[in-house]
Amino acid sequence: MRTRVEGVVQGVGFRPHVYRLARELDLGGYVLNDERGVLLEVEGSSQSVDRFLKRLVAEPPPLARIERILPEAVTATGTDSFEILPSVRTGTPQALVSPDTATCAECLAEMNDPRDRRHRYPFINCTNCGPRFTIATGVPYDRPLTTMAGFAMCERCLAEYEDPGDRRFHAQPNACPVCGPRAWLLQQDSPVGGGSHRGGASNGDANGDRAIGGQGAVQAAAELLAKGLIVAVKSLGGYHLACRADFQVAVAVLRARKHREDRPFALMVADLSAAEALIELDAPARALLQDRARPIVIARRRGGAGVAEAVAPGCPDLGVMLPYTPLHHLLLADFAQAPLVMTSGNRSEEPIAFDDEDALTRLREIADAFLVHDRLIHMRTDDSVLRHTTAGAVMMRRSRGYVPGAIALPVPAPRPLLACGAELKSTFCVAKDEHAWVSHHIGDLKNFETLLSFREGVAHFQRLFAVTPEVVVHDLHPDYLSTGYALERAAGNPARDWTDSSGARLIELIAVQHHHAHLAACLAEHGETGPALGVIFDGSGYGTDGTAWGGELLVGDLCDFERTGHLRAVRLPGGDRAVNEPWRMACAWLTAAHQGEGLPPLPAALSGQVTPERWETIARLSRSELAPLTTSVGRLFDGVAAVCGARAVVNYEGQAAIELEGMVDSAERGSYSIEVSERAGMIELDPGPAVLAAVREGAAGVPRGTVAARFHSGLAQATADACARIADGRGLDTVVLSGGVFQNRVLLESMVERLRSIGLRVLVPRLLPPNDGGISYGQAAVAAARLS
Ligand SMILES: [Zn+2]
Ligand SMILES: [Zn+2]
Ligand SMILES: [Zn+2]
How many CB atoms lie under 10 A from the CB of residue 286? Predict the structure, then answer.
C-alpha cells in the first residue's frame, strides 16, 4: 500500500510517528518527505495495513494537520523492515513552516524532573512543541535555516535527533544545557534612565551591567519581580515587559515609562486555576486558554480579582494567558506570588522589540533588568488575542501560535498573488492555488519602523512559501501606505529584492473596496462564496463614492458587491481629529438630529470638558460641506460614548466605544428607537433619535449603564429589521457580521441572537479578526475569485 499524505506534515514529527506506528503493527516499508508532503509505503497483513491507515488518520501527531490522504495499492516487495528515507527535493518546496507552539506536557515533566538532564532548562523542546516560525530564516525548515544554526548539537542531543524512535527525531531546535542557548539576567547598576550605556545581549558582562547567568538567572528575575521591579523578558516572538500585577505602584510606573496611557495590560498566570481566579470562563474559553497557541483570552473579570487598578483602568474585562515557553514556566513557578503583567516590549505605538540590541536600547528607560537569551528571534510576533463571547471566540489579533498556518481559499488563486491589506491593524497575505498565508499582525503602517517590518515580512513570506506574486491586491484608499506599496511593486523597480532573476515583470493590480474585503474574508474562511448579506460595521474605509464608509449593508459574493443599505451619513468634523476627540462626533450627530432653530445645546455630560464656544464652532463645521461625510458605526459609538460621559478625548481609536460597551447594564431590557427607512431601494438606518434620547435620559438622571444598554439594543434591533427586509427582498438566508465594531461583545451577541431568532444563518469571523487584520485575506479571496 502506498500513501501520500498532504497538509501540515513536515517539521511536526510525522515521519517518526509513521515509523513507530508501522513498527508497532509489524509492517515493512518506508516513509519520506518530498515537496508535496509525506510519501510512505507499508506492507504486511491486510488487517494491519487497514489498522495502520485508520490510526494514521485518527491519531496524527499533535502539530500535524492532515489535509489529504491518497492511498493506492502497489506490489509488495517482501520487506519486513521499516525505514525513514532521505527527503526527496525536486521543484519548489511546499513544505510548510508551522506556527510556534507552547511547551508540551512531556517536555514540562522533564524540565521539572531533578534527575533529567534538562532539569530547569529554559529551552527544552521536542517535535511536538517549541519555536518554529519565529526562528525560521528560510526553507526548507531544517536547522541550518533557523536561528539554531550556530548551536552545534552535543552527542546526546544528536543521538536523539537521529533516532526515529525518539520524541526529538528531527526536532530542529533540539538543545540541552550543554550545547544549546542560555539565559541570563542583566541588571542595571545605575538607576534606570541614568546610564548612557548601550549593551548587546550577546555580551552578558557588558560594562555597567551585572549579569547573572545559568540556573540562577530566572530565580533572580523572579526575586526582582517580587520586589516590584520591571523586568524585560525575551520571549518567543519578542520582548515582554513584566511586573507584578497586584502592585499598583509597579503597574503605574510601567504605564508611565511605557507612555501607554490607558490600554489594558495583558496578564500571565501560572495555570488554569490562577486564571479562573481572575476571569469568568466557560468550557470553550478554558479550552482556548489552554490551546497550544496560548493566546491572550479576554473575558469578564471576576469581582475581587487580585490585580491593581492600573492593569486595565475602567475596563470590565481582563486579558489573561498561560505560560508558553519553558522560560515562562520557570519564571511563573519561581515567582509564585501573583499574576504578572506581560505586555509587549515597546514604547506606546512602536512595534514590539525582538532584536536584542534594539531591545536593550529602546527598553532601557523602561525595564530595571533584562532576562535575555542567545537564541535569536528572526520574525517578531505579538501575542495573539481572542475575546470570549457567547457567539464563539472572536479573534482580535492573530499572530504568535497561529501564524503562518495556511487558510484555505474557496476559489483557488489561478496566479500567485500578494494582498497588501489595510493600514492600521495591518497584515498582508500571499496566496497560490487554494492556500493563503496571512501574515502576523504588523500594526500601524504610519509608524516608520512598522512599515519597514511590513516590507521585510512580505519578502520573508514570499521566500517561505515560494510565492512570486504576479498579481498585487490593494485597498481602494489612495492614501493607504499599503496601497502605495502595491503601486510601487507594480511599477516594477528592478532594484528591489522582490524581482526575480528574470528582472522586472508586469504585475497586475487589483483594487478591492474595504468593506467588500471584510465581507469576502468572512465568507471565504467559512469555505463559502456567497451571495450573502454583509453587515459591515467598521471604523472607516474608502467607499466607491469617495466618502468614508463604515456602516454598510452589502449584498455580495467573492467577486462583487452591491451597497443595499447604510447608516445615515453625517459630517466628520475635523477629519482624523474626530477619531481622537469623540465629543466632535457627539456634536456631529446631535447637529444632524437637531430639530428646530439654531444649533444643538451642549449636553450636560460634556459641559465640563468642552467650552460652549468650541461646541458652537464644531456644530457649525458639522453643517458645512468642508467636513467629509461618513457612515461609520465606529464613530457613532464614539459620539454616544461621549454623551454618556465617557472620555471626550481618547488615546487610541475605539477607546470611547470600548468604554461605552463596558458601561452596559446587562439586566436592562429597554431599547432606543432607530429608524429604518428606504429610499430608491437603499435602506438607511438613522440613529439620530437614539442619540437625542441618550442625551435626554442622561440629563434626566437615568444611569449611564441603562442608556448604554438601550443604545446597543436599539442598534441591534434596527439592524436585524433591516437585514430581514433585505434578505427577504433578495431571497438570501445568510448574514455575515464583520468589521472592527464587531469586536464589541454586547453588540455581536445581541445581533447573532436576533438574526437567528428570525431564521437567518449567521457567519462571523473565526480564524481571522473582524477588524482590519482580516482585510488582506479578504482581498486575496476577492482577487482569486475575479481571476478565475
Ligand atoms: Zn515538547
Ligand atoms: Zn545537547
Ligand atoms: Zn475595516
Answer: 16
Nearest to 678 by CA among 568, 554, 755: 568
- Give the separation between CA 261 and CA 171, rounded to whole angstroms: 42
Range from 6-20, 581-595, 757-771 carrying the lowest mean pLDDT: 6-20
Cell (9 digits) for 415: 496566479
Q: Is the peptide bond before 173 cis (omega within 30 degrees of 0)?
A: no
Residue 19 C-alpha to ligand 1 middle, in angstroms?
19
Decide: helix, strand or coil at residue 470: coil
- Of 155 and 207, more confident: 155
Angle at 246 between CA 240 and CA 249, to 5 degrees: 80
Show the DSSP H helices in 549-654 as ranges.
577-580, 582-593, 612-621, 633-643
Distance 572 CA to ligand 3 centre (A): 17
Q: Is the dihedral of CA 520, 523, 529, 531 positive or negative?
A: negative
Q: Distance between CA 414 and CA 432 in Å, rounded?
A: 7
Q: Give CA torsion, residues 485, 489, 494, 496, to 10 deg.
A: 40
Q: Dihedral of the CA atoms 139, 143, 145, 146 (nearest 10)? A: 110
Strand runs (DSSP E) across 55-123, as ranges? 65-72, 82-84
Ligand (nearest to CA of 180) = 2
Centre of ligand 3 from the C-alpha of residue 241, in Å: 30
The pLDDT value recorded for residue 268 is 98
For residue 187, how far is its CA from the centre of ligand 2 (angstroms)? 28
For residue 299, report the distance from its CA to the centre of ligand 3, in Å. 24
Interior angle at CA 702, CA 699 and CA 705, nearest 5: 120
In this structure, the number of other CB atoms found within 10 A of the CB of residue 424 comes to 18
How remote is the CA of residue 125 from the centroid of ligand 1, in Å? Answer: 4
Through-space distance between the first and last CA atoms of the chain, rounded to whole angstroms: 36
Sequence letter at residue 635: R
Compute the distance from residue 738 Cα to the ligand 3 centre, in Å.
Answer: 9
Provide the pLDDT for residue 95: 55
DSSP tag of 324: -
Alpha-carbon gap, residue 150 to 168, rounded angstroms: 19
Separation of CA 102 and ligand 1 centre (Å): 8
Cα angle value 597/600/605 (rounded, 5°):
155
Give per-residue burial for 636-667: e unless 16+ CB within 10 Å, then b: bbbbbbbbbbbbbebebbbbbbbbbbbbbeee
- Rg of the chain over CA atoms, in angstroms? 28
The total of other beta-carbon atoms located within 10 Å of residue 195's CB is 15
Which cell numbers hold the place of 574? 475635523
For residues 293 and 102, the answer to whether their CB atoms sit within 8 Å is: yes
Q: What is the pLDDT of residues 685-740, one digit of tens each?
A: 999 999 999 999 999 999 999 999 999 999 999 999 999 999 999 999 999 999 99
* 539 band by pLDDT with thresholds 50, 70 and 90: very high
Cell 491589506: give the residue.
421
**How are beta strands 183-188 and 369-373 bridged, if at all?**
antiparallel
Torsion of CA 650, 654, 659, 661, to 10 degrees: 160
Q: Which of 375, 258, 382, 276 is nearest to 322 (CA)?
A: 276
Q: What is the chain's mean pLDDT, rounded?
A: 91
